[in-house]
Design goal:
Number of helices: 13
Radius of gyration: 25 Å
Largest sheet: 7 strands, mixed
Helix content: 25-40%
Distance between the termini: 24 Å
Bound molecules: adenosine-5'-triphosphate
Strand order of the largest sheet: 4-10-11-17-14-13-12
Structural class: alpha+beta
Amino acid sequence: MSSDQSATRRRLERMDDLVSLCARRGFIFPSSEIYGGINGFWDYGPLGAELKQNLKNLWWQRVVRERPDVEGIDSAIIAHPRTWEASGHVEHFSDPMVDCRACKKRFRADQLEDAPPCSAREGTSEHDFTEPRSFNLMLQTRIGASEDAASTAYLRAETCQPIFNDFKRVREAARQKIPFGIAQIGKAFRNEINPRNFTFRSREFEQAEMEFFVHPSEREQWFAHWQAERLAFHRELGFDDEHLRTRPHAEDELAHYARAAVDVEYLFPFGWQEIEGVHDRGDWDLSRHGEYSGKDLGITDPDTKEHYVPMVIETSVGVDRTVLALLCDAYTEEDLGDGDTRLVMRFPVALAPVQVAVLPLSKKLAEPAHVLERELRRRFNVFYDDAGNIGRRYRRQDEAGTPFCVTLDFDTAEDGKVTLRDRDSMRQERIALEGVSARLAERLAA
Ligand code: ATP
């Protein structure tokens, strides 16, 4: 039966179902699991690491390689501590926090509606909260052998600040003219008060950020341009209009650096939430770093000789949050009728962690199957499995989100054909063994 025609489908409703699939199949699981985990930190297993890598590659392709006006960098995670004074993070990057005097738990003061009841008070489950205090979210570390204040450094709270530090060097080295952008993908760290919703709010996470430097007269036009570009990217990930929207920030929501901001939001099972921010940061960052470093980060227009500090349009997407959105979006329970059900991860073909599984019907067919496997491994990410019932092997690949399975059987030696099975439609078709690689390349390019 073809699932496209007859299955009843159910999307992800409870995060617990996804969390358990992710652990069982090795997409994502708690970091340091053997020690009971560490709150706000996650590890990506074999399938998760591939999915995340494919997403990062697609972003780099669209934002850096396809654009002559964007350069990529890879900066250190630890920057000179003055960076974070100039950026305003030491002073402003904090959330309001309250403590419960009874149960000693700590909560974000602006998210109390989600707090679990107090377990320590008699006769009431209400917390006994302190007044809100400001809690800085930057993670600190120490550098070198001395323990004095001068050795304190911060793990970067966002990947963009090193981009501003490197602005002058990169512009000159790459011989770029305004308008142009600098992009990077990398880890960021925030000591979130309440990490939650699986990987959605973590303490260590990855960002893919692009800072685009423009003349002050062109900021609105570039702000609109990048909003459209980034929305198109999320549509390419397969998110439909029912699950994707943009939301402009109200005046009182804007971060300390922002003149205007639009969030790209995805509808998770726990509600609409931000996965990306597009921000007009004005000249805040370059002016402040100019002031704190004593270096002139302004530009002199070669034609008009005007000297000015460029304005910055930023696109900042959370890699982990987007992976989470991809997982939620892909998760499908299908009722195939007659009591038969399957769980299938319908990832876009180009992002699937494994692209093709080679599944000989019997271990006796291992030799020709390995020949095919080796050939395919040069171009695709391949999984090989020759053990167990073929129906069960297909279902395991459905759970991994593998778009294609190739099965060799006892006729293959005679007629030179294999069975190509499609994940979504479950259709099976016999095709020539030697045409498999070209056929897969064609499907992937589509
Ligand atoms: P939030 O309001 O949800 O805390 P934010 O507005 O502080 O997010 P930004 O500073 O704009 O987030 O960061 C840009 C992107 O980085 C976010 O859209 C999100 O995808 C990602 N991000 C930020 N904080 C976290 C976190 N704690 N865990 C995972 N991803 C995060």
